[in-house]
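Researcher: I need the complex structure. Ligand is pyridoxal-5'-phosphate. Inputs:
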Amino acid sequence: MEIVDLRSDTVTLPTESMRQAMAVAELGDDVFEEDPTVNALEKKAADIFGKEKALLVPSGTMANLVSVLTHCDRGTEVILGDKAHTYMYEAGGIAAFGGVQPRTLNNHDDGTIDLDEIKGAIRPDNVHFPKTQLIGLENSHNVCYGAPISKDYIDAVAKIANENGLPIHIDGARIFNAAVALGTTVKSLTENVDSVSFCMSKGLSCPVGSVICSSAQFIAKARRLRKGLGGGMRQAGIFAVSGLVALDEMVDRLKDDHANARRLAEGISEIEGLSVDLNHVKTNIVYAELTDDNKNLDEVVTAMGDRGVQFFAVGPARIRMVANRGVEGDGIEKAIKEFSSYFSSA
Ligand SMILES: Cc1ncc(COP(=O)(O)O)c(C=O)c1O
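Model: Output:
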């Protein structure tokens, strides 16, 4: 049976050209900063983002953890959206390993946070308060329907941050999706932020890896933290090379994932028993609500899985589907057909 795996874009497998590049990648010890392929990836990423330096880390979670710990001292506070991945899905790492407390503010459906709320959440200098040391944004915003966040909004937050002597970190796990959707560059989106991380292993299809881009001073401190957290890798060029391939070959095709997500959302919006707000679908992520009271969400997930269509339940009545390179046009049509047949059955 053909499996249509819409659980995440992390399920994408490396491309043939990534595998070929892996076979001949020049390698060295990256903890000694001697892996030429890692060095080339870090240089390329820093150039693309217009930052001085970059650092390869094993995962998006470690990229955020290292970045927050580089910006913040123990006992301080980071302002985050209440639907931020770093707050919701990273095992409380910033608090557990960094002693950094999240100060969460409401994320609107478009992934933004009210600017006045950000201003109001910055702590005044008072012995009772934790110091605010960072503002964190996410782009595209996973839980907020994959929303791409505009440069104008990021720059408005950067202005507030500057006025208060605070840095900004962007969790850009899917920032290339945001840039493609907005018709701009990641460099422009992150021009006024201090650090940004992106994932190689989501829509870009690499098997593993994330990269943090920032100033030389920040990256030097982050490198030491990466080592302390056990993220120093030796011949990491074996997979870093896939990042080099991805940055050349995989960014433009993200628009195909976005088109597939839209097609999927449009198809599902016709089905009685499910509802999708098409206005929310701007990148590769589709959220749908179960509106059929006679159906149980876990049963829907299981029954659709039995029909070869996989996705996650992410709330009492909500499912998430992520278009990705492993699901081409036919797969999307199959998913729509199976949803339609399942929901029209008793
Ligand atoms: C927005 C966002 N940030 C960070 C991560 C963490 O990435 P990883 O799973 O590589 O740790 C994810 C993963 O889905 C994500 O969606």
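Model: Summary of the prediction. The pocket of pyridoxal-5'-phosphate is lined by residues 59-61, 64, 85, 138, 142, 171, 173, 199, 201, 210 (CB under 6 Å).
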